[in-house]
Amino acid sequence: MSTRESALIDLRPFTASPAFARLWIGSTLAGLGGQLTVVAVMLHVFELTQSTFAVSMIAVAGLLPMVAAGLYGGMLADAFDRRTVALLAAVVTFASTALLATLAWTGLETVGWLFVLSVVNSAANSIVMATKSAITPRLLPRDLLPAAAALQGVTVGIMVMAGPALAGVLVAFAGYAWTYSLDVLLMTSLFLGLWSLPKLRPEGEVVRPGLASLRDGARFLRRAPNIRLQYILDIVAMTFGQPVALFPAIGAVLLGGGAITTGVLTAAVAAGAFLSSLFSGPIGRVRRQGLGIERSIQVYGLSIGLFGLVLLAAALGWGRPADTGEDRGAVLLIVLAALTLAVSGAADNVSATYRSTMMQAAVPDAMRGRLQGIFIVVVAGGPRVGALYAGTLATIAALWVPPLLGGIVILALVGFLVRLSPRFRDYDALDPQP
């Protein structure tokens, strides 16, 4: 069976561009390390504060700096050599993680330091991600962009599936210092991937970073209804369907299992993304990518709602073991929760593949950095707003309320918004129009 006919993932981007292959390997290893730190910081803050709201505020505190860095990083990517921009931002990410590890080893870590370094790390990483996304279309032909986006899903699957599970085990048995240090080691691979790239100056008219560049990008976005709507749909999904900030409390007080359960739940999302990437061959053959985004986000909302129902069952005492003084966890409910989250991860990955392909194919190179900057702000900013929604509502009501209500809201809003823009459903990958 040919690559084009196979249901398995298309690996042709690796052979078509060795530079892309090196960048993918470096990004995957560095992303794996980054997930160790993300989960470890969540657990660390919860251990120091015993507050789900404090955990959610880690993400919220980094929102504004990340927005500013993503937007400015996109402008830098449209004005200067993209390889250099990505390398400099990666240095900042590396330094913040190294300082976090140093503080943990010396016992000087505080909630304040965890917040500050998380903010610096997320801001610098948003510049790296925006620049790398703008680089990919320069390394590959347009017909391989869906395959490249699916390979990015494999990266996300590996780093979020293995990372949280490994982080849970490392924190439980080795401590925070070793967990942060392993991230520092793995992050060195990102420099190898970026250093080996050729110089990549933006094509077309170059606008220096500043308000004029930002206004130029905003004007383009106003003329790009398909790109604009995919941003809005992703914000809806991430705002009302991101229960990650609740995982430490779910593991500690609802399902049991502590850090291990937190790692399992987070890894389940990535497992779904990973499996959907492995069988992503048909995705590259879909022409109506707008319709694909709509359907996949609706499946995402449904799965998050079902996750909320599982938590409701746990709150009502269904499936809980007898109180023997041991934190054995509600094994059946943990499995069901993980399955619903795996479906959500698969659906989100399919949506992300279509959204990334649409961005890279329909946006001209001279605008790609700025639009990717906005795209990264949406992708990374949405979950932070979602963390505030989930943490606040869980504090006011109960842990099961945010995902159950959020799933219902996603289904309703997505159907309504797409109905208002029929052109989005008719988007044709063979004639990409922004």
Your description of this structure?
By secondary structure, the chain is mainly α. It has a single domain (12-425), classed as Up-down Bundle (Growth Hormone, Chain: A), CATH 1.20.1250. The chain contains 17 helices and no strands. The longest helix is centred in the first third of the chain and has 32 residues, at 18-49. The two termini are 34 Å apart. This is MFS transporter. It is a multi-pass membrane protein. Keywords: Cell membrane, Membrane, Transmembrane, Transmembrane helix, Transport. Residues 19-425 form the Major facilitator superfamily (MFS) profile domain.
Labels describing this entry:
434 residues; mainly alpha; Growth Hormone, Chain: A; 17 helices; 0% strand
- What's the structural domain tally? 1
Topology as a string of helices (H) and strands (E): HHHHHHHHHHHHHHHHH
Describe the largest sheet: none
The CATH class label is Mainly Alpha
Which CATH architecture is right?
Up-down Bundle
| Uncertain stretches | 322-328
Membrane topology: Multi-pass membrane protein
Pfam families: MFS_3
Organism: Microbacterium phycohabitans
Subcellular location: Cell inner membrane
Task: Give a quick precis of the structure.
The protein is 77% helix and 0% strand. The chain is built from 17 helices and no strands.
